[in-house]
Amino acid sequence: MKRRDFIAGLGGLSTLALTGQGVRAQEAWPSRNITMVVPFPAGGQADIAARPVASYMQKVLGKPIIIDNRSGAGGSLGNATVARAQPDGHTLLMTLSSLAVLPESDRIYDRPVAYEVDQLQPVARVLADPTLFAVPASAPWKSIEEFVADAKARPGAISYGSSGPFGTLHVSMEMFAIAAGIKLLHVPYRGATPAISDLLGGQIQALASAPGTLKQHVDAGTLRVLANFGGERLAAFPNLPTFKELGYPDVEFYIWAGLFAPKGMPAPVVTKLRETMKQAMSDPEVTKTFEAAGNMPAYQDSEEFAAFVAKDSARLVAVARKIGKV
């Protein structure tokens, strides 16, 4: 054998060896624990979406999935953490519809943008619930009409809570306030859970949040819901009118929750992650857990979810620009 043929042969073997190592590395995913960042406190919509899915996924993947409730800046802190993470499939993000609004809020305030949406790739949508307008059961308002009349009589006197400036709860309430021509007092929190706690305690007077975070309190008689931000009535709240029914055709808001990953993951990891999510969202136990909390599963695979995110985000960014500096 000629020397150059021998060397070429070694080169081919080296290439084959490296290719084999690459395949084995990809096939080894996950090689360690997976962190699923939830950019809000425990008990909120993103957390409700994350836990049943993570529980199922770790059974299939054979590695623990650790929920990291990294709240702050209305969700921006956790979103940015994952956007900057290594795209190896070991850091994931379960986040909400405020994903696209938060970078826009940075631009509105001339702040450095914490992350861009295109740094993250959609994996699967989990939930897509409309927010509900809630007040304490002891509140004087029995309808949206009564609430609006009082708010017009006392501009800025009625307070509402949110998960932070330009978060999902803030944008939905301001969407309503703009349409109704009223001025409310915005009180930001680190997430829905502490906001609901203060709503129950009477420190704030109103809140828009997902059915799953409100249902137990409505069932217990401690909160009252006045309207549904969705396009149609909910089976869990059949007597609750939509804002469209109440004469506000442009007031529609869904607090969706979906799984994202840092952009640039190896294709085999993406495929395995998508397949695992599809299995999780069709599992009866996962479905039962969501329904018991008052949430209806709303699964979408990555391509369909990416198109949904793009369309919904454009609409919400337009609302954020109307809100402006607050």
From TrEMBL:
Superkingdom, taxonomy of origin: Bacteria
InterPro entries recorded: BUG, Bug_dom1
Gene3D superfamilies given in the database record: Bordetella uptake gene, domain 1, Periplasmic binding protein-like II
Family: Belongs to the UPF0065 (bug) family.
The name this protein goes by in its record: Tat pathway signal protein
